[in-house]
């Protein structure tokens, strides 16, 4: 699954994490000083945030683009020399490109959140009649928003196109690897499906979960300082009272609650999903044989196989009932939680409408990042099932013992 696309995965992935941590620390500790020494104009810490699309080609951002490119070039160059791999332009450089676009999309979210502040204050001024507000002020704010949105759309379209090719290249790499070992693999139950379908599903799901994880981490890094700054205007929380950094504490508590809740109630789902794929594959396999052989896919055999499919799906549906109760309960409460924690601040009158918009946006981004497992649980269930199937598939390549269900299938084929 990974060896076919990445150079030495057991070393590559830890080295990527270590290099990323080092690059981030270097950026936060020395980035401003190095940028200033190179002639870039660096915005001082604590300065009011800039609003508008122009921030994406400001001196600060151009310096970061250059820094990121240098860090990627060093890392990719090392692996090109240390462990040449036929797919490393896609697996190494391509992954770095996806990482950059995730960062860019997080910055778009920050730009929109910064825009929410003055726009909300403009609405409050117009409604409260605290100052004269002309219609042109609203239209100019709409233009600022549209500029950011159009740039975000353009980047998203290009990113989606690139990721589609990235995923398919990974599928090609896995397919070539498995087909080179086809004589060993052809006897495994559902071998054709695993090569034709599971490879694409695995690459797509890993990419999706990986991008979501990276996006969550970057969003957390970007929005937590903003939430800390906004906490200065929120003095206390309902039931709890005054505590340091109340918005950050509330976000962490709420996210951990949802993650633990859904992980506990959904613990049985991966195994059931894996079993579903097994019984479906056995049922489909017999139908395929029945197309070419009159003595296969007999009525009683198909009733037995479909009975296994039915029983497993009914059990699957039952366990999803209480999982969905917990999930939808949490999702619905999530929509009002960020407002509920601000009730004491509403009563005290310490926040404006624009600040409310910024707090809600930042709080939502931070909690969503911390809720990665909760939001991705059903996808993780699917990935675990696919991984089990492909891992058992690869056991035949390495001459390792197959799972019991595969051994029974091979014994049946040999007997027939």
From TrEMBL:
GO terms for molecular function: ATP binding; peptide transmembrane transporter activity. The keyword Ribonucleoprotein does not apply. It is found in: Cell membrane. One of its GO terms (cellular component) is plasma membrane. It is a multi-pass membrane protein. Keywords: Membrane, Transmembrane, Transmembrane helix, Transport. SUPFAM superfamilies: ABC transporter transmembrane region. GO terms for biological process: peptide transport. Its main location: membrane. The keyword Transmembrane helix applies. InterPro entries: ABC1_TM_sf, ABC_transporter_sub-D, SbmA_BacA. The chain crosses the membrane at residues 12-30, 62-83, 90-112, 138-163, 209-228, 248-269, 313-330, 336-356. This is Microcin B17 transporter. It comes from Rhizobium oryziradicis.
């Amino acid at each position: 699954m990974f060896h076919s696309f990445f150079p030495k995965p057991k070393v590559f992935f830890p080295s990527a994490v270590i290099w990323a941590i080092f690059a981030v620390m270097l950026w936060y500790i020395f980035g401003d000083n190095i940028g200033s020494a190179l002639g870039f104009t660096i915005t001082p810490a604590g300065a009011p945030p800039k609003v508008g699309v122009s921030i994406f080609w400001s001196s600060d951002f151009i310096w970061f683009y250059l820094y990121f490119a240098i860090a990627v070039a060093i890392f990719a160059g090392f692996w090109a020399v240390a462990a040449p791999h036929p797919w490393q332009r896609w697996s190494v450089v391509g992954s770095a490109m996806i990482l950059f676009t995730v960062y860019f999309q997080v910055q778009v979210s920050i730009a929109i959140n910064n825009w929410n502040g003055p726009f909300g204050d403009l609405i409050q001024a117009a409604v409260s009649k605290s100052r004269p507000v002309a219609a042109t002020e609203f239209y100019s704010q709409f233009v600022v928003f549209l500029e950011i949105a159009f740039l975000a759309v353009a980047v998203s379209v290009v990113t989606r196109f690139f990721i589609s090719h990235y995923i398919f290249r990974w599928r090609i790499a896995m397919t070539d690897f498995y087909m080179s070992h086809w004589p060993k693999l052809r006897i495994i139950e559902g071998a054709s499906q695993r090569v034709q379908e599971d490879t694409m599903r695995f690459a797509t799901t890993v990419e999706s979960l990986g991008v979501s994880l990276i996006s969550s981490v970057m969003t957390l890094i970007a929005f937590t300082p903003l939430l800390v700054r906004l906490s200065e205007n929120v003095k206390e929380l309902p039931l709890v009272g005054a505590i340091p950094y109340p918005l950050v504490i509330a976000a962490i508590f709420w996210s951990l609650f949802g993650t633990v809740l859904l992980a506990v109630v959904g613990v049985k789902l991966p195994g059931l999903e894996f079993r579903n794929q097994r019984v479906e594959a056995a049922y489909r396999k017999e139908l395929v044989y029945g197309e070419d052989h009159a003595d296969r896919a007999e009525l009683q055999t198909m009733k037995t196989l479909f009975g296994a499919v039915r029983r497993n799906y009914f059990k699957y549906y039952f366990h999803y009932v209480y999982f969905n109760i917990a999930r939808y309960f949490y999702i619905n409460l999530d929509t009002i939680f960020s407002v509920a924690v601000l009730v004491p601040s509403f009563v005290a009158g310490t926040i404006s409408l624009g600040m409310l918009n910024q707090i809600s946006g930042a709080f939502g981004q931070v909690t969503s990042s911390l809720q990665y497992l909760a939001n991705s649980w059903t996808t993780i269930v699917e990935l675990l099932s696919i991984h089990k199937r492909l891992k058992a598939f690869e056991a035949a390549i390495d001459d390792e013992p197959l799972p019991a269900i595969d051994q029974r299938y091979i014994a049946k084929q040999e007997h027939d």
